Amino acid sequence: MDERSTGLHSIGDAMGRHAQDIDALWDVMLWVCGFMYLLVVGFLLLALFRRGPRRDINDHTQAHEERGLSASLATWTGLIALGLFGLTLFSYFTDRSLVQAAADAQIAIKITGHQWWWEIEYTDPNDPSRQLRTANELHLPVGTPVKISLESRDVIHSFWVPSLHGKQDLIPGRDNDIEILADKEGVYRGICAEFCGLQHSKMHLDVVVESKDGYSAWYERQLQAASPPSDPLAERGHGVFMATACNMCHTISGTDAGGSTGPDLTHVASRRFIAAGALQNHRDNMRAWLANPQAIKPGNHMPIVSLSADQLDALTAYLGTLQ
Q1: Whole-angstrom Cα distance, residue 155 to residue 196?
Q2: Alpha carbon distance 274, 262 (integer Å)
Q3: In CATH terms, is domain 107-222 a member of 3.60.60.20?
């Protein structure tokens, strides 16, 4: 897979059908507006260079200059009207193309915005048992139209994956949606594009676009319940998880933990990042996050759970087994 950077994102790096349409519209607007701007600057410079001492003119000369000025203004007005009409027409066909590209969505996903993380649910209307809940990492099959329903549980957020589509707001109490059709495999960074509070800048998600076979394999793995830990340290960590407030906020399929306040942790070790993109997912970062999440994302809604060093080591080991 093309390991595309998750630290950078650009609307000019269009890798989705919708993003390509938007990028084409942007290019047309840039060229048309740039051409008009250069004309304005050119006429301004011409006027400055032609400026000379005041001279007496007769009526015939004045009438001639006025006719020339009127013709110039008419030409300029027509050019502006033509440019605006062209931009309007291109915008119309772009909007039409965006709608057509989303008409045959084959996968339905629901994304819920929280302060400050993304809850992702894959729905299957034909088999509710295959519904999947994860967080902060969206997997999509390449070349497949996907419809994403958007909602917020707290404040206004905005879902934006620049390389795949434009922005779409998540507004409390209002249903919204966006469609994505990714044309190339890769890992793309998504962000919240609407200021939503103290940790707005640390509300990211990875969008992993992979082959259809790769996506199917990933989906089947995610449907599996967490395997019981076999390592003694991880086994103690499971006990720590179940004996503390952790299980009240998080779900781990295959255990008695069924909390829904925080992200589903059934396969947390398989994700590239934790804390909604704030930290790369490895042992040291996981331990630091468990020890004091407020030091990493001040104001987030994960409480500090008082754990000893041994308990932290065990809990970190257990979460590291949740592939």
Answers
A1: 6
A2: 12
A3: no
